[in-house]
Specification:
Oligomer: single chain
Structural class: alpha+beta
Largest sheet: 2 strands, parallel
Helix content: 25-40%
Distance between the termini: 41 Å
Shape: flat
Order of helices and strands: EHEH
Strand content: 5-15%
Length: 84
């Protein structure tokens, strides 16, 4: 399990990361994202974190999917320099 965890290779991370997590996720605890954020910060890796209130692992509400879609688009445009 440790080898499959994102933190197993955190020392090699350098690309920007978008983290999106539902705060009622019962598959992956929110504390794991909090831990990853702290580790990314220590590595000086750019990241954006979005916590979606009252959502589970797969996102149930249409509004959540819209928010995620907009966030992913904005993140990719910003980090990949779309339109430059």
């Amino acid at each position: 399990m440790r080898a499959a965890s994102p933190v197993a290779d955190i020392a090699t991370w350098c690309s920007p990361v978008l983290l999106i997590h539902g705060d009622d996720d019962r598959n992956v605890q929110v504390t794991q994202t909090v831990d990853l954020v702290q580790r990314l910060g220590a590595q000086r890796v750019r990241f954006q974190e979005i916590l979606i209130p009252d959502e589970i692992h797969d996102f149930l509400r249409y509004a959540s999917w819209q928010k995620v879609g907009h966030a992913v688009t904005a993140f990719l445009e910003r980090e990949l320099g779309a339109g430059r």
